[in-house]
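Propose amino acids for all 314 sites.
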């Protein structure tokens, strides 16, 4: 069963999103428990990655170059576009927060499900997550009014719980648990990780369904913005990295489009404005439709640029 779920996760994630829209009461029940799921998702993901290889790649300049593209450059792109299209200040704050957000910790599992390198996806995910607090704080300072004040103690405590603690625990496990034992549990952990991901699309779309029931045009407005943001992140990353190869370009695109908006909401929810929670719900639709898009793009690029007879570039 675990193998079946992992193999067909890209379709099942969309089904989970639609199920959350169809049963908003159940979605709202799940929502308060999502921070706990997030903690274990991050922990299991880190436990499923070889630490030495991870740290070796994390030290490379290219990893942090990607993190700057993911957060700083995308903030400039997205907020500039929003400003010129007449977005309200509250919406700009939400867009800036989404742009600062690190990649979803399920990204390595999603990357693996579409045939991409899970280790590289994990490196990108951790780099963007570690950079997120700085960029998020700067973005809130820039886009909030003069009365903005972030509770630094609470902010740091939540960062420690949801980022530092899973990383530290994972490091301890790798230090004390024999390597053969870790090797045996890696494959199972990756399957458990993708199962945990289903809670997010299901539990985060409840508020959006509430808006659909009362003001469908407003809900469609947020869905349109969410698709626009994901498309911007996806296409910009593809263009930046395509010269380095198809696989790295697709990895950058899927990592940039998968945003861990629940983590952002968890560490800074009180400062993100009224639009963020609705945008968070709307983002689940394009985010979890993304794996199918990546499969299509991957097949298209392979067919377009590689000869089926020889497997070499045309």
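Proposal:
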């Amino acid at each position: 069963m675990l193998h079946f779920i992992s193999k067909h996760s890209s379709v099942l994630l969309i089904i989970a999103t639609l199920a959350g829209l169809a049963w908003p009461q159940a979605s709202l029940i799940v929502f308060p428990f999502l921070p706990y799921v997030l903690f274990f998702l991050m922990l299991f993901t880190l436990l499923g990655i070889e630490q030495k290889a991870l740290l070796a790649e994390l030290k490379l300049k290219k990893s942090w170059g990607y993190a700057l593209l993911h957060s700083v450059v995308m903030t400039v792109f997205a907020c500039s576009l929003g400003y010129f299209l007449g977005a309200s200040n509250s919406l700009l704050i939400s867009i800036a927060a989404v742009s600062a957000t690190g990649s979803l910790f399920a990204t390595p599992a999603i990357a693996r499900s579409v045939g991409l390198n899970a280790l590289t996806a994990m490196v990108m995910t951790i780099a963007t997550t570690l950079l997120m607090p700085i960029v998020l704080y700067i973005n809130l300072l820039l886009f909030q009014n003069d009365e903005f004040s972030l509770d630094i103690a609470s902010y740091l405590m939540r960062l420690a719980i949801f980022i530092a603690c899973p990383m530290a625990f994972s490091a301890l496990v790798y230090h004390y648990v024999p390597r053969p034992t870790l090797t045996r549990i890696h494959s199972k952990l990756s399957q458990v990780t993708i199962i945990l991901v289903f809670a997010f699309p299901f539990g985060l779309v409840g508020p959006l369904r509430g808006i659909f029931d009362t003001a469908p045009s407003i809900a469609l407005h947020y869905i349109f913005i969410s698709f626009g943001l994901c498309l911007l992140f996806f296409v910009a990353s593809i263009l930046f990295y395509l010269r380095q190869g198809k696989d790295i370009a697709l990895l950058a695109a899927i990592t940039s489009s998968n945003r861990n908006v629940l983590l952002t909401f968890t560490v800074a929810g009180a400062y993100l404005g009224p639009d963020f929670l609705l945008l968070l719900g709307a983002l689940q639709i394009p985010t979890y439709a993304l794996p199918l898009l990546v499969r299509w793009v991957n097949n298209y690029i392979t067919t377009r640029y590689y000869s089926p007879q020889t497997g070499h570039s045309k």
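The first helix runs from residue 2 to 7. The radius of gyration is 19 Å.
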